[in-house]
Design brief:
single chain, 222 residues, mainly alpha, two-stranded antiparallel sheet, 10 helices, 2 strands, globular, Sulf_transp_TsuA/YedE, transmembrane
Length: 222
C-alpha cells in the first residue's frame, strides 16, 4: 500500500503543471511600452531612449536575478558565489570605463568627472545600517525594484522605507555635514598611488576577490 501511495505521489509531482495563457498580458505590456515611448518622445528622443534602456535593464535584472544583497548573502547562506563574481566583474568593467572618462577629461584640461566624497565613520555607520536593512527586506535598490514588478508585497514596503530614509536623510543632511562630512578627508586614489597604481591596484584587488570567491564556492569539491 505504501509503495502505491509513493508511486502516486511521484507521478503527480512529475506531471507538468499547465501554464496559463499570458498573451493578453504580453499585449498589454507591449502597448504600455510603446505608448510610453511615444508620449516621452514628445519631449525629445533622448527620453524614449532612456525609457527603453530602463526597461531593458529591468529585464536583465529579472532574468539574471542580479542583486547586490544576494551577492553578499548567498556565499554565507548557500555557499554560491555566482552573483558575487558577477558583481566583481561589473566593478572591474566600471573601473575601466570610469577611469577612461576621468583620465581623458583631465588630459583635455576639464574638471574631474564624478564626486569624491569624504571618508569617515559616517560611511561605516551608513554601510552597516544599509546592510542590515537590505538583508531584512530581502533586496537592495535594484532587487527591490525588480521584485516589485514581480508582485512581492514585501518589496513595496521596502520602497516606502527607501523613500522615508531618503527624506529623513535630506532633512538631517546639514547636521551630518557639519559634524562628519567637513571633518573627514576625501581620498582620491590617483592622488595617493598615482594613476597607474590606483587603476591596476584596484583591478588586482578585484581579481584577488574573484579568485577567493571561486575558491569559496568550490572548496568542498576538492
Amino acid at each position: 500500500m505504501e509503495e502505491v501511495i509513493k508511486s502516486t505521489i511521484i507521478r503527480k509531482r512529475s506531471q507538468a503543471v499547465p501554464r496559463k495563457n499570458q498573451t493578453a498580458h504580453q499585449i498589454a505590456a507591449l502597448v504600455i511600452v510603446v505608448g510610453g515611448a511615444v508620449l516621452l518622445a514628445r519631449g525629445g528622443a533622448i527620453f524614449s531612449i532612456i525609457w527603453f534602456l530602463g526597461i531593458g535593464l529591468g529585464l536583465v535584472l529579472q532574468k539574471s536575478r542580479f542583486c547586490f544583497t544576494a551577492s553578499l548573502r548567498d556565499p554565507i547562506l548557500t555557499g554560491s558565489t555566482t552573483l558575487t563574481r558577477a558583481t566583481i566583474i561589473a566593478f572591474a568593467v566600471a573601473t575601466v570605463g570610469f577611469a577612461a572618462l576621468q583620465f581623458s577629461t583631465l588630459l583635455k584640461g576639464g574638471h574631474l568627472i564624478g564626486f569624491v566624497a569624504p571618508v569617515g565613520i559616517h560611511i561605516a555607520l551608513g554601510s552597516m545600517l544599509f546592510g542590515i536593512g537590505m538583508v531584512i527586506s530581502g533586496g537592495c535598490a535594484s532587487g527591490t525594484l525588480m521584485r516589485m514588478g514581480e508582485g512581492f508585497v514585501m518589496q513595496w514596503i521596502s520602497l516606502i522605507g527607501f523613500i522615508g530614509g531618503s527624506v529623513l536623510g535630506a532633512i538631517q543632511y546639514g547636521w551630518w555635514a557639519v559634524h562628519f562630512f567637513r571633518t573627514s578627508h576625501a581620498i582620491y586614489l590617483p592622488n595617493v598611488f598615482g594613476w597607474a597604481g590606483a587603476f591596476f591596484g584596484q583591478l588586482a584587488l578585484l581579481a584577488a576577490l574573484y579568485v577567493v570567491a571561486t575558491w569559496w564556492e568550490y572548496r568542498k569539491l576538492n
